[in-house]
Amino acid sequence: MPSTSGQNILRNASSDGLPSTVFIIANPAYHGPAPSIQRYRFAMNNLNTESADPTEMTLEQFNAWYADPILRLCNEKDGGIAALILSIPLAERYFRQTSDSGQSSKLGDSFYRQIGERLFNLHLDETKKLWQCLRDGLLHQASFNHQSHKVKIYITRKGTGVDNRVRCKEIGQVLEFVVDARALAEKIVKMAQMNFYDVFRAGLSSSHPLLVESEIPGWAEEFLTGEKLAGGTGCP
After folding, report:
1. Cβ-contact 74, 187 below 8 angstroms
2. Which of 14, 35, 223, 232: disulfide with 39, CB 3.0–4.6 Å?
3. What is the pLDDT of residues 3-56, one digit of tens each?
């Protein structure tokens, strides 16, 4: 059996040049403060993953693992919901940083104001209701969470206009939202790309470290070659 120990799994390519198996794990060792702005500026000119700090995600990796797949979905007529599900966590990480919310379990008005002003173009109360319905619903049960709010959400394929990714109107006692999911997901990705080093990656934390490339763990070598692990098929 050929050994894969010491190789970077993302460069362990198959004959067509694509990775045959991908293992990406978080870096649990980082517990310090965010690197300095000066360091970010240096990193922006040094995006080669061979020479970049292996304990910190680069923009090149962010594009490969998140941005490019999401943007491909945005180009599909029916890709909006899937793109939104994938991009909402990026938005939460981004706006936690810009609003100085950190890892607080309870998000304050500063977080929602940032989203309302820069993403939804909605007032604070409207933003809170829409975010909670989208975030809590899509990420937990792949639908909208209507448990706490009288709302209706419509996902449109046609688009609501460049500056109107979300539209809102109160009908009776119900808030109705029309959401251009593809445009919204694209906006989130573009914000993270444009401000990757000084905002998105600056939100480093010990509880939610960004993903990095990793070597294959020794115990998984036989499993990754299609053979059973010694001692059974479960986790060791």
Report:
1. no
2. 35
3. 333 333 333 333 334 333 333 334 434 333 343 333 333 333 333 334 456 668
Name the nearest CA neighbour of 34 among 210, 207, 202, 236: 202
Q: How far apart are CA 202 and CA 208, in angstroms?
A: 12
Burial of 8 (0-12, 13-18, 19+ CB in 10 A): middle
Distances (CA, A) of 8 to 21, 82, 213: 11, 29, 7
Contact status, residue 48 vs residue 205, Cβ threshold 8 Å? no
Tokens at residue 172, please? 């009776």
How many residues comprise the chain?
236
Would the pTM count as exceeding 0.90?
no
Give the C-alpha separation, 65 to 206, whole Å: 21
Nearest to 178 by CA among 107, 114, 126: 126
Between CA 136 and CA 124 the distance in angstroms is: 18
Amino acid at 115: I
CB atoms within 10 A of CB 235: 6
pLDDT tens digits for 135-161?
Answer: 988 999 888 877 666 889 999 877 655
Q: What are the φ and ψ backbone dihedral angles of 171, each rounded to 5 degrees?
A: -115, 105
> Residue with structure tokens 């970077």?
8
CA–CA separation, 105 vs 97, rounded Å? 14
- Is the separation of the CB atoms in 58 and 50 below 8 Å? no
Which residues, at least 6 apart from 146, have a Cβ–Cβ distance to it below 8 Å? 133, 137
- In angstroms, rounded to a whole number, what is the distance separating the alpha carbons of residues 76 and 149? 30
